[in-house]
Flagellar assembly regulator FliX
Amino acid sequence: MKVTGPAGAASTPASRPAARAAGGFALPSAGAASGAGHAGATSSASGVSSAAALMALQGVEDPTERRRRAIRRGSGLLDRLDELKLALLGGQDGAAALERLARNLREERPEDAEPGLKSVLDQIDLRAAVELAKAEAGRVRA
């Protein structure tokens, strides 16, 4: 089928089957079926490659997403430090809070953060590591 412009589409005589020209119904020939099958196989392969391309694009983070993730990680560590503080002030041993703090500290940290944010995150990580080291030293002494 060929598009000729605003008037619409026009068929080329070579692509028109003889039975259709006579107005009757005709099944496609064996050659046309194999061509259609080949085209179907090609489109399914391109569907897989386009899905893989979409998955690859989703894996690429933009700087704002990395910044958001870094901020979320830092505020999570601060929340765990607050939980530890409240547990210790409440007279508890804080083992559960320490475990959550250690787990959050082990999370992957985005390294491409801006310098100011990186500095703050370094300080938060250091404070969390100090609290974990103090707790470990207390366990060793006991």
Summary: The chain has a mean pLDDT of 77. The chain has two domains: 30-60, 63-141.
